[in-house]
Amino acid sequence: MKGICWLVFFGLALCSCSLEELLQEVPRDYAISGTAPQDSSEETGELFPEEEDAGAEDGSFHGEGADEEETSFLMPEAVRFACERLSEAERVWYYDMERMLGSFGDKVQLDNAGLEAGLEAEDVDRIFQCVLNDHPELFFVEGYSYTRYTRGERTTAIEFSGTYTMDRETAAKRLEEIDAAASRILSGISPDAGDYEKVKYVYDTLIRETDYELGAPDNQNIYSVFVNHVSVCQGYAKATQYLLNRLGVECTLVLGTVDAGEGHAWNLVKVDGEYYYVDTTWGDVSYRTDGSGENGDASYRTEEGQGDAEETDFKVPEVNYDYLNVTTAELLRTHTLGGEVEMPLCTQVKANYYVREKALFSAYDEEQLQELFNKALEQGRDDVTVKCADRACFDAMYTALIQEHEIFQYLPDHNGSVAYAQNEDQLSLTFWVTNE
């Protein structure tokens, strides 16, 4: 691989404050509110009677330190995939964190109902990760800290605080930049387009407008993609999620590993009612290949019509479709699932790129191949990719098209060189004419 794709690391600061003696002075019918009372004191451990709920789940709540005149940063179209897979008690804390972070608040006391249901401080990190996984628009959130109040061995309250990479004013200005860039991109596709067309459009556009760069600033969030146009895997995946959610397509962030345990991020999408995996980062050819052909990367060569193939250095197609709407079985050839919630088993292939574009081959079929090249020519495309259903088909296509040079009979101009890429993990071959 060209480089390691770093996943964001969220800071954790645990302050276990034993306030047994002080808490014993508080009447036992007092409870900590799910919101943070302005007059509570961390230093003394004083608690105050439960207050009315300060807001609903629509992001209207503002935690301590937030200006109530300000609008929430939460995106109305956000899909709460991870939230929906939490228990009822976990969702109570999820909404507390979501409202506070979305309003750029300072801190909130997590609802006591969570503690009564058996949640503990150890659950904070997992629920926090679920909030961030569902909300790519929280680009300014760096991590969190919490304070745990105890009476003896029993946790009586947990106060949660967000940590941010910038102040509220800067975040608001950056959000305007993000919205402007996203609106420009979304204007390029009809809202009446189908799910498949929306997913493919977002995939193509982000790849063409973004360069993979390991040291890119803000590379763990969507600002790096929409404004800076350089990012790493988490930036690609969160930008994909952000755009598709705004287009009304269910899309969530997936975290895991690839190759020898390298951290990686990609997406789960729902197309026409069925789930598929999408890896926009691996669709960017410049990230996935270095010409070596190792670790599942494609290898690139040229054919002159006669003679041996030779490796060369030349421009290659920008987009690779091996990871556009794939099944769990295909994904697991190169990826390992991780994350905080269980992912569904993806088995459908109707929306897979190669199935949808009639580029999936079960055998070497000259008529099907010619139709594919004709279609590319009509669309003004200069490259064609085919995928094989099994290894036997791949070997037959490779032998006929490359070793026996039959690729030239499908091209309108037989005079140039033909470059090709092969991905043996996904059993695909890409061809294009080059004059280099």
Secondary structure elements and their pairing?
Elements lengths: L13 E5 L1 H4 L57 H4 L3 H15 L4 E3 L2 H5 L7 H11 L6 E11 L2 E11 L3 H19 L8 H15 L1 E2 L10 H6 L1 E2 L1 H14 L4 E8 L3 E10 L2 E5 L1 H4 L1 H4 L10 E5 L6 E2 L12 E3 L1 H4 L3 E3 L15 H4 L3 E2 L4 H13 L4 E6 L2 H13 L13 E7 L4 E7 L2
Parallel strand pairs: 1-3, 5-6, 14-15
Antiparallel strand pairs: 2-4, 3-4, 7-8, 7-13, 8-9, 9-12, 10-11, 10-16, 15-17, 16-17
Helix pairs in contact: 3-5, 7-9
3D structure, described in words:
This protein has 15 helices and 17 strands. 31% of the residues lie in helices and 21% in strands. The protein starts with 13 loop residues before the first strand and ends with a strand. The longest helix has 19 residues, at 168-186. By secondary structure, it is an alpha+beta fold. It has helices at residues 20-23, 81-84, 88-102, 112-116, 124-134, 168-186, 195-209, 223-228, 233-246, 280-283, 285-288, 328-331, 353-356, 366-378, 391-403; strands at residues 14-18, 107-109, 141-151, 154-164, 211-212, 230-231, 251-258, 262-271, 274-278, 299-303, 310-311, 324-326, 335-337, 360-361, 383-388, 417-423, 428-434.
Largest sheet: 6 strands, mixed
Q: Rounded to an integer, what's the Rg over CA atoms? A: 26 Å
Q: Helix share of residues?
A: 25-40%
Query: How many DSSP H or I helices?
Result: 15
Q: Widest sheet: strand order?
A: 11-10-16-17-15-14
Terminal Cα separation, in Å? 25 Å
